[in-house]
Design a protein that fits this description.
Length: 251
């Protein structure tokens, strides 16, 4: 059991509410905005909508679990960690992380053969990363945390190798503003995903971000990595559509 003040309970609850609103708003934007890009880039916005739709649903479930795990007693909240189902996050990541990588590849407008090859590598690696990281999240012993952390880091390193290797070569070929935006999208993924392994490893270093800090940090990282990343994908799609001579008036 853990005791939370009214402010601590409220800030996490409000952050969950903000995240749900961000995901739902982003979902509506991606659906409506897909007509503003050339047809071959619309699939990337559809995938963006799927990502934030999945995330919005899971945050709704997380917020419900947060309420279920707390009981208001004598001016404070008693929080039962065992009743809080944080596994919703891993189910969400298992679905959305591969799709985020798919967004980046699909918006490049590559040939079918090239696109399928990159997607296969990245989706398999992303799935392996999440699956291997989950056992360590709930482990109590340092040896188990380290073992699963190292194992999950292998596919993560492979993803970075692909993004800065094969994908990097394609980005360099794009050039101009589109190339810069694609590089920024790649860095945004790295920056937001970087929060998760850091939080994962902090207990081994004797640090404790605490329940409140972890929930707020995860929520902010998810909004940036999903809704924010999707907006950047839209901007890339618009620029590529303009470069291809796509006209909204004609459409």
């Amino acid at each position: 059991m853990e005791t939370l003040s009214l402010e601590q309970y409220g800030v996490v609850y409000n952050m969950f509410s903000f995240t749900i609103a961000s995901m739902l708003g982003a979902f509506a934007f991606f659906i409506l905005a897909r007509e503003r890009v050339a047809p071959k880039y619309r699939i990337s916005l559809i995938v963006s909508a799927i990502v934030v739709g999945i995330a919005g649903y899971h945050y709704f479930r997380i917020m419900g679990s947060w309420e279920h795990a707390t009981e208001y007693v004598n001016g404070a909240y008693s929080f039962n960690v065992d009743l809080f189902n944080d596994a919703y996050r891993y189910v969400d990541w298992l679905l959305t992380v591969p799709l985020l990588l798919a967004e980046l590849i699909l918006v490049m407008g590559l040939s079918r053969q090239k696109s399928e090859g990159l997607l296969t590598k990245l989706i398999i690696a992303a799935t392996a990363m999440i699956v291997l990281g989950y056992p360590g999240e709930g482990a109590a012993e340092a040896s188990s945390i380290i073992l699963w952390g190292v194992l999950s880091s292998i596919p993560f390193a492979y993803i970075l190798y692909i993004l800065w290797g094969e994908v990097g070569q394609v980005i360099d070929e794009q050039g101009g503003r589109v190339g810069l935006l694609l590089k920024n999208a790649r860095w945004l993924l790295l920056a937001t995903w970087g929060f998760y392994p850091i939080t994962y490893a902090l207990p081994l270093l004797g640090a404790d971000v605490g329940l409140i800090g972890m929930q707020i940090g995860y929520a902010i990282a998810d909004v940036l990595a999903k809704a924010g990343f999707g907006v950047l994908i839209y901007i890339i799609a618009r620029n590529k559509s303009d470069n291809d001579g796509y006209s909204l008036e004609i459409a």
